[in-house]
């Protein structure tokens, strides 16, 4: 659990982790958008591999997934996309377990992980895979040196929390509020409590679900987060398309910069965490 | 704690936010349902009897017995309050939620039968209730939508995908992920994460508990076969459970839809035969047999009956099929419609279109079903009248009454 | 031979052509029903149980009991196959016809509930079946028309008069006068010439037989009052019969319609309250209480519920009212609609609009009904959804759900 | 049971008995039509007092009843109409029991019969009043010297037949076939059998239900009937109104003549019955 590319991404202060649905609306655009986000300051990129039943997503990302699937996105196309990216920051694959489980000829998650490692993916977030069912994927990740990021929810406590934190690597995805993904206009009070519960663990804590503004980013990092994850606010920009305000790529870069600045500002207003 | 798997199937593939609620539910299931804490089971049984109308009869079907030259018995779940077996489960879960101190109930529905059952149970118990239903199903099952509203439930249309049961389940899970602290999700079949498949089966097992006693009383012995239609599989598991230890053949009749062929390109399987043609995968919280493409994307299923129109199936049923204990079979839309009309005319029972599938299999394969056959009449067809008018008019269905006067709908 | 009169009411006022058939029926009633010849009664009871779903529960209504601060029990005839008490009678008569060697059944229907019950019974017994139904009622109760057709029955529209139950009965009598030799007329309530009122009551008396035992079992005593809606009066007499010797108050709740005033000029009584406001006369074979003008012409009755929309009432009920044993009361259309929504929301039971009248009386007069009240839930409301949408939209009904999404019908 | 005006109407050979619904379409027309029928040879006139639930009538007469009720016909108007008629042949009132039962202040049929006698009505036919329920009306008729005609159906036999024939006066109405009133194009085979069953009784036998043509009339009288009753075929003419073929009254008279001739022809082709 040390020395992965993901770990390094948290080394220089609070990380900004944008999410996009791969293939929304097509493969070439995704490459362009990801690069724009990196230019804007992304430290890690979460790239969604669309699944037809995205039970953890709100309508913004659901719609992105529909666009992507209609554009012909498949696991193989996804891997090719990542292979082509070459962006210099770690890529985390966010998808649902069935796609991982079904991939390849052999049974289980191993073929998927093997291929992911090969194309340069650094870790996974699998929203429908709680710690209880994660052992096969955890093993395959270990074998190929990939991180397996778990989500902790506001409802995760005590024994459960321990079970998850025993298995997590890369960072822990702190779900800022109950519910599904989706941009909000406020910061949930649950966030600070959730972060507090994680004090005793040394793994980086990245907060997601609902962050859409510079101020959110700042407040959350001030509250103790090591990173912020932003998805729907960016997917909204993709969905809007080019406007008078700039192309999608331009606006993504601008938004990324703004959020990253928020995170940095938050980082300065609190005692820097000791990093190992 | 109860086992979360059935062989290789089952499990708990859900977002972390739901896991604490699911653990709480496992605990409540253990205490109230399995150990009858606070007399939960007695309360449940009393309500099933007085509010639900249990026991339902096991009826000797005279005309069908003569037609097939064997003794055909009907387990009359269509007589349950609300018109389908669904109340057994909806009432059980709503009552459990009440014992757990939850104030709000959410549920998905396909045919609307689980939604109406849940809405009725919630009205009966004084719980708030919201039902998610695919927009397409809302249009196919308008009377049921209205019944839910009458019982004071909100009905939330789900517009993603093809707007059927699969999408409704996904959307209900999303609501639950938001509301999990005060809300119980009353899932409508033996699907979803553990402990749902086991718990729903236990609530539905009353079907075979009664049927087994009744058939012994009427014939002095056990049936040679039991037939039940399978969507998610709750009436199937309910009708099979107490017979699994016996020497009785168990047939799960799936919706063959318009064809068993699959349109990979379009992402559509024009059937709902996951046991017969599906492959292993993970959906809606469980590992089970699914209709999916080679990438693992879930297919849009199809059936003339909304209640069977689902790409997955209960993990226990998948396991029993692998073990050879349950035989998966299927019949197509036309066969189901024909049987709908046949049962209506020969026995004076208008079955749900879902149920009609079991009778279509009886018609096709009766010779191999032995001397004593039980068919589970999972529901009545009042909710399907509009669909039957349309679908019958589109086809040349043997034995159907003249539909002309009903062109333009009811 | 059984008595043809109840006090001054009853008798056999029918065309001579029908009298031989009626004598034959009297004889069959005596032998099969009263003397259980050939085990008729046992056969009937077994079919009521296995095909019909008897016994129906007597349910303690928790929400209503709390609301009215007394113990309210519901006799759940809505759970009977077909959705109303009507099957008790339809199955009894169709079976009797079969024992008599008749091959063809005719019947009238108002709400369509007696028609569907008869069609179901005939399909079950393999008898030919034709149903007469007023054209207006056909339009008010389309799903029931379709259900009859599905069960293989012909539905003959009756276009005379206002096209409701009264006209349908007249027309069925005309058919019978033609076909009397091989046809039995399954009359749908405790009306018509002797022996119908007595025989139909005997078939329906199973309601109070069960309810009396059940209420004693549940409360240790007899109810203070029993409430049932009264159209022709079959569910009323069924629910009252076994209590007539007890010290229980019996309330026959009639349809007050839109008003108890009568429009002599137009020949219209905008209600169906023949017990409350009618006068003695002869209609459809019996002397009874009727809605009629001062010349003796029968009025067109009205009720929001087709099944109560009748200008006459059973002669035995008229007699029991004269004797003071039964109290006739009535509630109006609005009250019935309100109660329809109230029961749906509070108890999770969607009642027939007919049945809703009994609950409206409960709401109005509960204070005077004693500690233990039984309400006969004569049927379920699935058949009424369309009417309820229309009628609720026209009015300002307290507690009704928002109907907007259903404008334009189901 | 002797010497009534109705008895006399059968004295001179087979009687022709037309039926019309009083007040169809109005009172003045009915008077005109009845007179036309008498000119055409009617020996007795059956005049229907419309009741809202005419369960023994087919659609022709049902419709006539609707027209009449809509035209305002009432029992009192009916009595006035009959009082005005002055046609020289007996009038039989055909109606349903409720109108008889309800009439007047006192209970029972007596007030109706009293008034009927006063306006010159000679007898009653009440299709929904079988012998079993007829005693009160029979008594009132006896009191005022009116005949009470009963219908015997093809299904009426044995004990029942005896019970009816014990109570009948004027003539017995032999229902030619099962069913309701209404013109037919054939003569029922049941007619001869029915007539045969009545041989032992000496009261005149008039056959009705379905007779519409001269030939029917002839055949039925040949078969032993003492009279024929024709309703729907005449009501059809009223319903049609005036045509190129003549006014309603003209066509009624013509039809009556034709039917009467048929009856007479039938009478000649059989041995004349002995009349007391
Ligand atoms: C009448 C009826 N039968 C069967 C089904 C299928 O569900 P399951 O397989 O869970 O019993 C449904 C579902 O709505 C139904 O309404
Ligand atoms: C549900 C229901 N209740 C009551 C009635 C009224 O009939 P009765 O008074 O004969 O019970 C009807 C008639 O159709 C009905 O359908």
Tell me about this structure.
In chain A, 45% of the residues lie in helices and 13% in strands. Chain A contains twelve helices and nine strands. Chain A has helices spanning 5-9, 27-39, 59-70, 75-85, 97-102, 110-119, 135-144, 158-167, 190-197, 214-222, 232-240, 248-268; strands spanning 15-21, 45-48, 91-94, 123-125, 147-149, 151-152, 172-175, 205-208, 227-230. Chain A has a nine-stranded parallel β-sheet. In chain A, helix 2 (27-39) links the parallel strand 1 and strand 2 (45-48). In chain A, helix 4 (75-85) runs parallel beside helix 6 (110-119). The mean pLDDT of chain A is 94. Chain B starts with a strand and ends in a 16-residue tail after the last helix. Chain B has helices at residues 19-34, 40-52, 62-68, 86-99, 113-125, 135-140, 142-150, 165-179, 196-204, 206-219, 234-240, 274-277, 315-322, 333-347, 353-365, 385-394, and strands spanning 5-6, 9-13, 58-60, 71-76, 104-109, 128-134, 154-158, 183-185, 225-229, 249-257, 279-283, 285-290, 326-332, 372-377. Chain B has a six-stranded mixed β-sheet, with helices on both faces. A four-stranded antiparallel β-sheet of chain B has the order 1-2-12-11. In chain B, strands 7-6-5-8 form a four-stranded parallel β-sheet, with helices on both faces. Chain B has 410 residues and is α/β, with parallel strands linked by helices. The longest helix of chain B has 16 residues, at 19-34. Classes of the chains: A alpha/beta (276), B alpha/beta (410). At the B-C interface, helix 2, strand 3, helix 5, helix 7 and helix 14 of B face helix 2, strand 3, helix 5, helix 7 and helix 14 of C. One pyridoxal-5'-phosphate binds at residues 84, 86, 110-111, 113-114, 189, 229-236, 307-308, 352, 354-355, 378-379 of chain C. One pyridoxal-5'-phosphate binds next to helix 5, helix 11 and helix 15 of chain B.
């Amino acid at each position: 659990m040390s020395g992965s590319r993901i770990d390094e991404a948290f080394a220089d202060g609070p990380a900004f982790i944008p999410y996009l649905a791969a293939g929304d609306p097509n493969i070439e655009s995704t490459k362009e958008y990801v690069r724009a986000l990196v230019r804007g300051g992304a430290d890690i990129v979460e790239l969604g591999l669309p699944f037809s039943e995205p039970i953890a997503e709100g309508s913004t990302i659901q719609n992105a997934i529909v666009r992507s699937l209609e554009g012909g996105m498949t696991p193989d196309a996804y891997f090719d996309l990542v292979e082509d990216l070459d962006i210099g920051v770690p890529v985390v694959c966010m998808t649902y377990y069935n796609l991982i489980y079904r991939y390849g000829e052999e049974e289980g998650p191993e073929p998927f992980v093997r291929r992911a490692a090969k194309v340069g993916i650094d870790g996974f977030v699998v929203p429908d895979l709680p710690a209880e069912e994660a052992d096969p994927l955890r093993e395959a990740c270990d074998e190929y040196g990939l991180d397996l990021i778990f989500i902790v929810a506001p409802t995760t406590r005590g024994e459960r929390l321990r079970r998850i934190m025993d298995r997590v690597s890369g960072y822990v995805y702190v779900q800022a509020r109950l519910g599904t993904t989706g941009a909000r206009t406020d910061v949930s009070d649950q966030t600070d409590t959730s972060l507090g519960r994680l004090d005793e663990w040394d793994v980086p804590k990245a907060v997601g679900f609902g962050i859409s503004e510079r101020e959110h980013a700042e407040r959350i990092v001030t509250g103790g987060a090591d990173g912020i994850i932003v998805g729907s606010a960016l997917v909204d920009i993709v969905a809007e398309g080019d406007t008078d305000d700039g192309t999608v790529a331009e606006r993504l870069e601008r938004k990324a910069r703004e959020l990253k600045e928020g995170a940095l500002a938050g980082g300065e207003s609190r005692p820097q965490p000791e990093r190992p | 704690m109860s086992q979360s798997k059935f062989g290789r199937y089952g499990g708990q593939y859900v977002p972390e936010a739901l896991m604490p609620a699911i653990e709480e539910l496992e605990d409540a299931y253990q205490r109230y349902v399995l150990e009858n804490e606070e007399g939960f089971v007695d309360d449940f049984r009393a309500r099933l009897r007085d509010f639900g109308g249990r026991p339902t009869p096991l009826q000797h079907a005279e005309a069908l017995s003569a037609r097939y030259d064997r003794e055909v018995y009907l387990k009359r779940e269509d007589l349950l309050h609300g018109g389908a077996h669904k109340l057994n489960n909806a009432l059980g879960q709503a009552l459990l939620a009440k014992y757990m101190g939850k104030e709000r109930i959410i549920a998905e529905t396909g045919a609307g039968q689980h939604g109406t059952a849940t809405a009725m149970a919630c009205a009966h118990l004084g719980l708030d209730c919201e039902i998610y239903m695919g927009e397409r199903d809302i249009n196919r099952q308008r009377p049921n939508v209205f019944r839910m509203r009458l019982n004071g439930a909100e009905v939330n249309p789900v517009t993603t995908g093809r707007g059927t049961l699969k999408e409704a389940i996904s959307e209900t899970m999303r609501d639950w992920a938001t509301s999990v602290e005060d809300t119980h999700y009353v899932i409508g079949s033996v699907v979803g994460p553990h402990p749902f498949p086991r718990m729903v089966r236990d609530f539905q097992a009353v079907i075979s508990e009664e049927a087994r006693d009744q058939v012994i009383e009427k014939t002095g012995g056990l049936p040679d076969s039991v037939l039940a239609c399978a969507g998610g599989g709750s009436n199937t598991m309910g009708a099979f459970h107490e017979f699994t230890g016996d020497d009785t053949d168990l047939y799960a009749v799936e919706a063959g839809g318009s064809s068993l062929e699959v349109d990979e390109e379009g992402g559509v399987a024009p059937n709902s035969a996951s046991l017969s043609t599906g492959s292993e995968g993970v959906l809606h919280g469980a590992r089970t047999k699914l209709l999916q493409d080679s990438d693992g994307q879930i297919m849009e299923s199809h059936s003339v009956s909304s209640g069977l129109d689902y790409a997955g199936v209960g993990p226990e049923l998948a396991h029993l099929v692998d073990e050879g204990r349950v035989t998966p079979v299927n019949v197509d839309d036309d066969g189901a419609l024909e049987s709908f009309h046949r049962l209506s005319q020969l026995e004076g029972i208008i079955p749900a279109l879902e149920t009609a599938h079991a009778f279509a299999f009886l018609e096709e394969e009766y010779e191999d079903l032995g001397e004593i056959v039980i068919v589970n009449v999972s529901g009545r067809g009042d909710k399907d009248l509009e669909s039957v008018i349309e679908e019958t008019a589109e086809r040349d269905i043997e034995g159907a009454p003249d539909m002309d006067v009903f062109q333009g709908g009811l």
